[in-house]
Amino acid sequence: MHCLKMATSSIAILAFSLFSHLLLPTLLAISAQSNAIHAFPIREATIKDLQLAFKQNKLTSRQLVEFYLGEIHRLNPLLHGVIEVNPDALSQADKADYERKVKAAGSLRGLHGIPILLKDNIATKDKMNTTAGSYALLRSVVPRDAGVVVKLRKAGAIILGKASLSEWSNFRSSKAPSGFSGRGGQGKNPYVLSADPCGSSSGSAISVAANLAAVSLGTETDGSILCPSSSNSVVGLKPTLGLTSRAGVIPITPRQDSVGPICRTVADAAYVLDAIAGFDHYDPATRAASEYIPRGGYKQFLRPHGLKGKRLGIVRNPFFNFDEGSPLAQVFDHHLHTLRQEGALVIDHLEIGNINSLNSIANDETTAMLAEFKLAINAYLKELVTSPVRSLAEVIAFNNKFSDLEKIKAYGQDFFLLAEATNGIGKKEKAAILNLEKFTRDGFEKLMTRNKLDALVTPGYAVSTLLAVGGFPGINVPAVYAGDGEPFGICFGGLKGSEPKLIEVAYGFEQATKIRKPPSFKS
Fold first, then answer.
1. CB 253 within 8 A of CB 220
2. Which of 61, 107, 119, 178 does the annotation list as catalytic?
3. Looking at 252-399, which runs of residues are DSSP E strands?
4. Is residue 371 domain-resident?
5. Is 2 inside any structural domain?
6. What's 159's domain CATH number?
């Protein structure tokens, strides 16, 4: 309310000029769409479809990027799924087309020439910003590409732009709605515009669901890939902790943060995971986790009959908390029947011994995360080449001074204030972390090992905390549309390094059901 008028005007003009400059190519692209694009149907096309079209000269990467830029120009004012587009996206597409023409190594497979959106907490050392949706980091300069971006560029992917998100990955305020940030506005669910898009990787899920990009990356600390994927009818894969690098990602806590693909199909998620998984010397956790990567990568596990012989666990309480006979209960009972029909052994009515302590575990998780966030965010901010803010305290001060620009003064910054009040990892935090480790060991791990389960099956993203605190992987697949058309997913979670089995299970379910459909943009 009391920010300087000059500063307000300056940042507003800067934001508008960035938006205008970065979306200018779309104005040129729209007129070309009907003539150049429709020879190949791009909407809902998979990576495999696109690569085949490249190979058969039915499509170029430039045409593909022009299509997505046109769709962003057309739909983003409604959906707010993209916060910024890459002014170099078309030149990257031209480079990919040239490499394909001269048959450069790797130019006819994987992510080469495929446009990808990155959640706006994933650093790119280029003309784009990395802000976590906050004006506090606008025009900051990162020291280098994030580890996953290095791998994407090496794979030949085109960085299309940055996806919107819940500001600061939903760790600024407990009162802010999912999908809202100062820079990006309020993200909208493309199926039912009034429905919760869920956070914090909401823009990544919204954009892929609405065909604003081929594939995207999100990040998860607790639920931020699985939840928006469930709510926006896409596939989201939250990897084992450290399987993908977190270096260059605006952090919450290195104990739980993970980077993973959000795509329209399980196959596309496997292709993206193949590109981004692996060792990065800037993230020590990737050294041990790299041992989980199977020889030959993850796409080999895209087996239509991947459910055959799998042991799948069902914990009714508290995950299947539907009213008996309700439409959702009926749908998920049918899905369990499908899993059995496809050859899986479904072990029902299992119990997690300490599941009743889930609420207290959530409190321990928050206690640890607040202190870890302060340490991690201060380290990230200090490493920036240039930045308006260099510490959490300075971010809080910026938000107080320029609350009009942030547009969320009413939501406050209670998480930030609680985090700033911490003083390292003390007795309270250590006790909380020990409780989390014991909860994992005596609960989810014991359930999985005693019953020799390949995966735990749950509706939606309710299992996210169990997976988050233990660093375990999970994958969401579209499962149902409610009466009003709102999507809901099914999640398969497993022990560390179980991505191959989870991909087999998820792909088998997807191929047996083929639930996903394009969005309806219902009001």
1. no
2. 119
3. 258-263, 311-314, 345-347
4. yes
5. no
6. 3.90.1300.10
With contact defined as beta carbons under 8 Å apart, do 471 and 241 qualify? Answer: yes
The predicted model scores a pTM of 0.93
200 has catalytic annotation: yes
Distances 424 to 142, 256, 370, 413 between C-alpha atoms, Å:
25, 17, 10, 20
**Assigned token pair, 132:** 């976590």
Is 154 among the residues known to form the active site? no
The DSSP string of 140-206 is -B-SS--HHHHHHHHTT-EEEEEE--SHHHHTS-SSSPTTEETTTEE---SSBTTS---SSSHHHHH
The tens digit of pLDDT for each residue in 409-418 reads: 789 999 999 9
Residues forming beta bridges with residue 219, ordered by sequence position: 259
How far apart CA 257 and CA 240 sit, in angstroms, is: 10
The one catalytic residue in 140, 204, 224, 230 is 224
* Residue 433 covered by a domain: no
Quote the number of domains for the chain.
Answer: 1
Q: Note whether 238 and 474 are within 8 A (CB).
A: yes
Domain for residue 442, yes or no? Answer: no
Per-residue pLDDT reduced to its tens digit, 39-85: 799 999 999 999 999 999 999 999 999 999 999 999 999 999 999 99
Rounded to whole angstroms, the Cα distance separating 213 from 72 reads 9
Catalytic residue among 134, 164, 169, 200: 200
Residue 181 lies in domain: 114-303+359-428
